[in-house]
Amino acid sequence: MAERFDSVEVENVKKNDAGFLTYDLLAAQTGVFPYRDYATGEIVYELKHPDDLLTDEVLEQLNNLPICNEHPFEFVNTENSTELVKGLTGQNAKVDDNKLANNATVFDGNLIAAIVTGDKRECSLGFTCEIVDESGEFEGQHYDRRQTNFKLNHLAMVPKGRCGSDCFAKLDSEDGEVRQDSAYQVREDNLDNNKKGSGKMAVIKLDNKEFEVDEAVKARLDSLESNNKELTKEVGQLEGKVDAQNDTIKQLKEDKAELEGNQLDSETLQQKIDERLALLEDAKLFLDSEYDFTDKETKDIKIDCIKAVNDSFDPEGRSDDYIDARFDAMIEMASEGSTGDNNLRYQKKKQDGDDSSIQKKKNKRLNLKK
Prior knowledge:
By secondary structure, the chain is α+β, with helices and mostly antiparallel strands. 37% of the residues lie in helices and 28% in strands.
């Protein structure tokens, strides 16, 4: 199937209550038309015969046809329609004399502005067809080939006069290679310029080499380059967001592991409780009943017990192992039930009720030093 692009100017442009732009259009007509063949650059005349164009099948295709802002580099499909479709044709396609006619609605703000200002007032039909190598005459005009089996794809809004020396429309195939069966219609009133290739050219640079191309080609390349930069920027932003989310996930996993590490199972918790209760019970042998155990760490309680026996004890620089060993030794001595004066330190609870707590502490310290 060959690709073709024909252009006509739209009429009766107006806005509806929603701000959408509506207009009437003639999408195509029968006759012999000159086309510039993309592969050869030559002008060829192709026939649109009424028997091929003015059919119920083609009319049905003209209903609800996507409208694009310029011809896209690939035909409209389900994967790119969100980006490319800026409007739709109506559902009233008909044959008007020897032409295909319909109305259309554009709902994209940028394209509406371009149409209203007159920047884009031509409607260019993008379609595929089979090309029959048949020459002859139609209504007194010679043709080289005949278009048949039309498959309409989209209507593109393009600048008025684009089909003169500045007219250009090209689509790429899916693999990025330019299709060799593409062609675009040129104007009869500018046919000599198209034949001679005297249209205005622009210069592009590829791999440090300069090439002359149609201005429309350069404009399209510039547009693609701009889009590529924007997409690269968006990719960078997305990568940054993904990295940030990965960092958050990593931190959450670390926090979860830390919380799980800090949680005690029931057996370990019971062991901690038993150890605390045993410490409190042992500490009562050395500390007064007024001693406040609230919020006291195990090490602090043991140090206070040692100081109760030896008020000159300085814990500075003493390791946890030293504190534990000294406290355990005190408990062991108490459990052995020392006799004589040594026993005074372990009889705290058996002292008469009128003994002062100061005297009790003094007795304990004296007995420990013997």
